[in-house]
């Protein structure tokens, strides 16, 4: 990777970071980014996909598989020189180790000229198993709901990360699932804001794209336990938190903390975006989800895994819009949010904003014929795009809803906004606290750079 390049040259280069890409959804996001870029973007443009894995060996293996996928692309088969339009770069990070996150941030700041989007996909379930009796019973008697919003996964309570530094004092506890799914990403995104600020044409402002889950519901999130240390649904809690952060990121009530999060640290950034004609717009924050697809986040033996896929297919035949089954289909919404021109995303959210709403949660949806596309996903307490009352987009009204879902009320919206204000405040306070601890640790060990 190189940080060289003039402003005009950078306009034809797209740089996207994808976390957790060694398997499953993250790997498919990388594959689909390359495929859609070659299909839809002019031949003058070049895409660099920087992906992360845990460990050099996984990174090297993933790079080899991504390059093989690129060689098998139909466009590349017809025109082998098209491979030069896409570059994959491997990076190593452990999102539960904040010093590892900081090290990755520094390498990115030093080695690439900008970032047009970061797809925060890496995740950890924290589950210990499945209540098979409940699972079989509910799938047999209430198939569609049971395979869309499962309640039979068994989670551990109180899992924390290992000590983050070698400082001879006690550190604040960090929830392992919270750190892997949210806080490690949060720290990384803040650190690379200087690169996101240099994004411009053709994408528009840099984008922070959180990958959430259809299972995320506010009832599983407790603001008094923001790290999910007191619940056995820490995964669902963490994904609900990402929804709240992304969907309230452009509200006046959260602005003080969002502006702090999107500010450049003088010790980490530079004024290079001013010299290179960057967009001068703050990064936009979006949230997507992959629907329900088959991944290894819940380890299953092969017979159980294929039985699960059959149940997903059956749910799709029953009319579920969310059972993408394939991780490639599941990558639809995230890739759309990362590669689309800003006008496309603005137009998609325009019906909600014109009716007093804001950001929507974009999910990967597939019909019975296997045709996928991104669509708005209803969020408890936020509805579709934060619009009070009946959904304003007709297809949102016609789409099958979660049992018990109700139209958004003024009171619901106010509670959600207040929740967003509280979560942003606590996340920023936690980030600042940990940045101080990491600065101290690096000063004590003599490591780090200014």
UniProtKB/TrEMBL annotation:
<dbReference type="InterPro" id="IPR036291">
    <property type="entry name" value="NAD(P)-bd_dom_sf"/>
</dbReference>
<keyword id="KW-0752">Steroid biosynthesis</keyword>
<keyword id="KW-0521">NADP</keyword>
<feature type="compositionally biased region" description="Basic and acidic residues">
    <location>
        <begin position="265"/>
        <end position="279"/>
    </location>
</feature>
<protein>
    <submittedName>
        <fullName>3-keto-steroid reductase</fullName>
        <ecNumber>1.1.1.270</ecNumber>
    </submittedName>
</protein>
<keyword id="KW-0444">Lipid biosynthesis</keyword>
<keyword id="KW-0560">Oxidoreductase</keyword>
<dbReference type="GO" id="GO:0000253">
    <property type="term" value="F:3-beta-hydroxysteroid 3-dehydrogenase (NADP+) activity"/>
</dbReference>
<keyword id="KW-0443">Lipid metabolism</keyword>
<feature type="region of interest" description="Disordered">
    <location>
        <begin position="262"/>
        <end position="284"/>
    </location>
</feature>
<comment type="similarity">
    <text>Belongs to the short-chain dehydrogenases/reductases (SDR) family. ERG27 subfamily.</text>
</comment>
<dbReference type="InterPro" id="IPR051593">
    <property type="entry name" value="Ergosterol_Biosynth_ERG27"/>
</dbReference>
């Amino acid at each position: 990777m190189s940080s060289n390049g003039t402003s005009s040259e950078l306009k034809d280069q797209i740089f996207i970071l994808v976390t957790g890409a060694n398997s499953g959804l993250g790997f498919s996001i990388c594959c689909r980014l390359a495929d859609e870029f070659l299909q839809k973007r002019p031949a003058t443009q070049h895409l660099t996909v920087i992906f992360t894995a845990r460990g050099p060996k996984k990174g090297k293996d993933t790079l080899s598989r991504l390059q093989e996928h690129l060689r098998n692309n139909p466009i590349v088969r017809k025109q082998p020189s098209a491979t030069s339009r896409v570059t994959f770069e491997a990076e190593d990070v452990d999102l539960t180790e904040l010093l590892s996150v900081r090290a990755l941030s520094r390498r990115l700041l030093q080695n690439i000229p900008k970032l047009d989007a970061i797809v925060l996909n890496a995740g950890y379930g924290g589950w210990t198993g499945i209540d098979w009796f409940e699972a079989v019973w509910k799938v047999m008697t209430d198939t569609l709901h049971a395979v869309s919003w499962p309640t039979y996964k068994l989670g551990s309570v109180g899992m924390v990360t290992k000590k983050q530094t070698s400082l001879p004092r006690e550190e604040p506890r960090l929830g392992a699932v919270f750190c892997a799914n949210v806080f490690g990403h949060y720290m990384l995104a803040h650190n690379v804001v200087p690169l996101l600020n240099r994004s411009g044409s053709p994408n528009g402002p840099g984008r922070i794209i959180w990958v959430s889950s259809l299972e995320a519901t506010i009832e599983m999130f407790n603001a008094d336990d923001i790290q999910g240390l007191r619940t056995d649904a820490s995964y669902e809690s963490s994904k609900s938190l990402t929804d709240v952060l992304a969907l309230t990121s452009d509200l006046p009530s959260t602005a003080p903390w969002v502006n702090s999060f999107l500010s450049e640290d003088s010790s980490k950034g530079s004024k290079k975006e001013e010299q290179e004609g960057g967009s001068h717009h703050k990064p936009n924050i979006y949230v997507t989800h992959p629907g329900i697809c088959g991944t290894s986040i819940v380890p299953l033996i092969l017979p159980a895994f294929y039985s699960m896929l059959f149940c997903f297919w059956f749910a799709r035949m029953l009319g579920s819009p969310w059972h993408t089954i394939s991780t490639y289909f599941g990558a639809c919404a995230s890739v759309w949010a990362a590669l689309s021109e800003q006008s496309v995303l603005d137009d998609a959210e325009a019906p909600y904003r014109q009716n007093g709403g804001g950001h929507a949660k974009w999910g990967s949806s597939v019909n019975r014929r296997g045709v996928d596309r991104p669509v708005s996903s209803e969020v408890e307490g936020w509805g579709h795009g934060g619009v009070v009352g009946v959904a304003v987009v007709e297809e949102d009204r016609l789409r099958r809803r979660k049992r018990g879902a109700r139209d958004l009320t003024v009171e619901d919206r106010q509670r959600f906004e207040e929740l967003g204000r509280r979560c942003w405040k606590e996340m920023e306070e936690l980030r600042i606290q940990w940045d101080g601890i990491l600065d101290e640790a690096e000063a004590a060990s003599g490591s780090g750079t200014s």
